[in-house]
Design brief:
Layout: H1 3-11, H2 13-29, H3 38-46, H4 58-89, H5 91-104, H6 113-120, H7 125-129, H8 135-140, H9 145-168, H10 172-180, H11 185-214, H12 216-220, H13 229-238, H14 242-270
Helix pairs in contact: 3-14, 4-5, 4-9, 4-11, 6-9, 9-11, 10-11, 11-14, 13-14
Amino acid sequence: MSKAIRNTITSFIVPILFIFTWAIFATKLNNPMILPQINQVLNNFVHATDDFIGLGSIPRNIIVSLIRVLLGYCVGVIIALPLGIFMGYKESISNLFSKFINTLRPVPALSWVPLVLAWFGLASLATFFGVPYGPKQVFFDNFKFAMIFIIGMGTFFPVVSGAAFGVKNVPKTLIESAKVLGASNRDIFFKILIPAAGPNIINGLRGGLGSAWGCLVAAEMLPGSLSGLGYLITHAYELARTDLVVTGIICIGVVGALLDYIFVVVEKRRFSWLGR
């Protein structure tokens, strides 16, 4: 048996044990409000295109949540990545920002909710672009600035840390060797520092996306949210639809894992030399 097949089989052991344990406990409890049966959850996926508790289909909610996360993630990366690179490149910039960033890092996303609501209220992309009332307005109103801010905050800290750490820990010998060979500061920055810091930058981006996806439920609990996986979970809980809660959790986990896999592929293709 090849190593790849053996690894694949091993990776399925824990999920199978988990499903087996779930089935046993669900049967013994016999209370779908506490723990639904597996077939109830599977039935939700079989009828994924149905309108669940008036909140739309599962694919629609996934799409809305995915767009929200990507918007917040992009905002966070646009701010954090350049800042992190320059914090690693210039000690003076690091001294200027590091204490402030380290003070805000432990603050959980939910604690920003009252302040963010005071800042942005229920303003969304629809209000910003002045979209007239109609189907487009309803769609773009899903993407409120308060949600984007919270997701962006979740993205910011892993990305800025990864970029700063990566640039700061580039071996000095690489830089000195380039200077001896007559490389300009621009060449050193773009052709040595950034590529050498690449693995840590990718890890930061990967962690930032995971954190952004983790902030989704907090963001979708904000007033004015009427769709998305996070809202589906919280609203299903209020209606004692635990099967839908579990369905939403599975969707968040699977989509998050697929997004994470994108960075795994990038690491393997671009930085495979690290494992040699």
